[in-house]
Design goal:
The longest helix is centred in the N-terminal third of the chain and has 13 residues. This protein has 10 helices and 19 strands. Helices cover about 20% and strands about 25% of the residues. Helix 1 runs parallel beside helix 2. It is elongated and about 75 Å long. Helix 10 links the parallel strand 18 and strand 19. Strands 1-2-3-5-7-9-11-13-14-15-16-17-18-19 form a 14-stranded parallel sheet. It has a 3-stranded parallel sheet with strand order 8-10-12. A two-stranded parallel ribbon has the order 4-6.
């Protein structure tokens, strides 16, 4: 009898967490015995990595009443049983899972009646035409780099209590989003060429328009070009745009539509955080949108352009309280001179503090 057998089979107390990482060659009966024992000992957190071809995932984990967290992977074709009942499950994390059809995912999701967080990472939805997530209890939803047919998939999300949404994957054919309680959103990871897009991404931005905090990756700006209109972000307080410094990203900034529209249509915006390349292409019509900004942080600044950018924001952000500039490495003997020049710049807001960092 191996060490794992002795620890599990002769245990007389509950098991809080059980993690199993199967190799390419496993003893199926032994693994099933370990799983069964963990479930009998009222396991709360179950982490299973079972590569395709090693063994079939048994049905009994899908009816465990004590599970709070379930994590499944890796390269696993998940044949979900008809009867799924996980009444206490709060967190579901699926990594590189393949679903054979629409019903398979729906059976799993429908059985998680109290689910609060779902993370899907690099999962294949090629066999699914309608990806539907509808749950009143769900508070956090993260979709990372899903694999699917972008011309066929319909994504439906109806989560009235959702507070955090991350969508870092390619564009689907259709969307229907309802997230009335959303607080923060992170959108990015759209990798197809511009002429590939057929769907209007406006639906996604309309769905997240209630957010108070929004992070956009620079490659999402090219998707904004295809939107018929950008909705008003009436509750948006914090906006962060993550740039890459790549020439293709700057091209989409030059186009003017997108990030400028988000700035102009966010009347409550108070906090801006972005990389240097975003600043270069702000059109004049955005100036008035900066009047109520309280904090601005600009990363990866070129030392020679830092004063120009600082002057721009100190002039138009009349309520600014803090301007933070992160500069590229600067010669030590010139650092003090540069800092003095920046701190001495005129500003419309007399209460504004300037902070300078080098990296």
């Amino acid at each position: 009898m191996c060490f794992v057998d002795r620890v599990l089979f002769f245990r007389n107390t509950s098991i809080e967490k059980f993690s199993l990482n199967c190799s390419s060659s496993v003893d199926t009966s032994r693994v099933y015995g370990w799983l069964s024992t963990a479930l009998l000992h009222r396991v709360q957190h179950l982490d299973l990595i079972i590569p395709t071809g090693t063994l079939s995932l048994p049905d009994f984990p899908f009816t465990c009443r004590t599970l709070v967290t379930l994590k499944l992977g890796y390269d696993l074709l998940l044949n979900v049983p008809n009867d799924v009942y996980l009444p206490n499950l709060k967190t579901l994390h699926l990594k590189t899972i393949t679903f054979p059809d629409d019903n398979s995912f729906q059976r799993l999701f429908s059985g998680c009646i109290g689910l609060e967080e779902m993370i899907m990472e690099s999962c294949s939805l090629h066999n699914i035409r309608k990806f539907s997530v509808s749950r009143h209890s769900l508070k956090r939803l993260s979709l990372y780099y899903l694999i699917f047919n972008s011309t066929k998939l319909w994504i439906v999300i109806d989560t009235p209590m959702l507070v955090h949404f991350q969508y870092l994957t390619c564009e689907a054919a259709q969307y229907a989003l309802k997230m009335s309680s959303l607080v923060s959103a992170h959108i990015g990871g759209i990798l197809q060429p511009l002429d590939y897009y057929e769907a209007d991404f406006t639906t996604v931005f309309s769905g997240i328009s209630n957010a108070q905090s929004l992070t956009l990756e620079s490659n999402i700006l090219k998707v904004l070009l295809s939107c018929e209109s950008v909705p008003v972000f009436s509750n948006l307080v914090q906006l962060k745009i993550i740039g890459s410094g790549m020439p293709e990203d700057c091209f989409y900034l030059v186009m003017g539509k997108g990030h400028a529209n988000v700035l102009r249509d966010s009347p409550q915006l108070r906090d801006l955080d972005f990389f240097e390349e975003v600043v270069y292409y702000l059109p004049e019509q955005v100036h008035s949108s900066l009047s109520d900004i309280k904090e601005i942080e600009i990363s990866r600044c070129n030392n020679f352009d830092s004063k120009t950018m600082a002057k721009y924001f100190l002039k138009y952000a009349g309520m600014l309280k803090k301007l933070t500039l992160s500069l590229l490495f600067f010669d030590k003997k010139d650092k003090l001179k540069m800092k003095k020049e920046l701190l001495a710049l005129p500003r419309t807001s007399k209460q504004c503090r300037i902070k300078v960092f080098w990296y």
